[in-house]
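Fold it.
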Amino acid sequence: MFIKTTGTKPRTIDSAGNEKPIYRVGKPNIIEQLKIVRQAASEKAEFFVVECMAVQPDLQWLAEHRMIKSHVGVITNVRDDHLDVMGPSIGDAAIALAGTIPRRGVLFTTEKKFLDTFKARAKSLETEVRFVDSAGISSEDLRGFSYLEHKDNLALALAVCGHFGVDKETALKGMYAINPDPGVLRKYMLQPDGKKIEFVNAFAANDPDSYRAIWAMLDIHRMEERKLIVLVNSRKDRIQRAEQLGEFIAKELDADFFVISGEYTHALTHKAIHCGLPPAKIKDIGGQSAAQVFEFIKSITPKESMVVGIGNIVGLGEEIVNYFVSSGRMIA
């Protein structure tokens, strides 16, 4: 088996289980997929697993139907993300993602709202659609992970494994043992200068629906004895996402304080205030280092706080995570 993932850090996993980073010169380009296919072929891999790295709808179709030509496709869900390219509406994003459905194959998905969109495209391609329900996933199944995993994701992975003849017990054993992506959802406990800071790394989530799911899963809420701080990291190449986040935190997140770090922070902060967030509840510390972000968070923590990091993990986001992690211990 040969694997390529484009999570927090792009990498390959060869047939011997060795992970190797993918170094890029300039922006990502889907031509990279051809190089990876050649690597898999050179190792005579029996199975090839690869993420679609394309965002533009025409390139998504091209990557599947002219490059990979997969037998099994997986679409986790359709979320309110990358609408500046795949939109303008989330329905348009669903149509774009349907462009990755294989011809005369099988599609696995946990997406309910746009399931009919996928079925219509799949029918024209003579492909079977298998909707995966997470109702059968137990708390015990999730307990074996070293990080916080979503039921839908696990159900989807198990369904695909089952399709290839791997039973649940064997599949779970393998999943528990792997080295996870650096951006997985985790909680850490820090105790700087006698204070208690519970840090939740949710930077890899990229859209409001994902944040809502995380809030519900972790039951994040304000408490009298603990200050709830939302740390939003922004990237200058994600302008649409920055403004979307500004509106989201103003209208949907009930926190004691919001800290904005990274790049293009002024627009995000302005959008949040314009949408009703009181200026006294938000602080723009754009351009500051991970160490400076940590010190600011510590300074506004009275005795105890929960800090939830959202927005973007690439660049400063990962530096913030590493700095916080080095200052505490993992608790989930």
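The mean pLDDT is 93.
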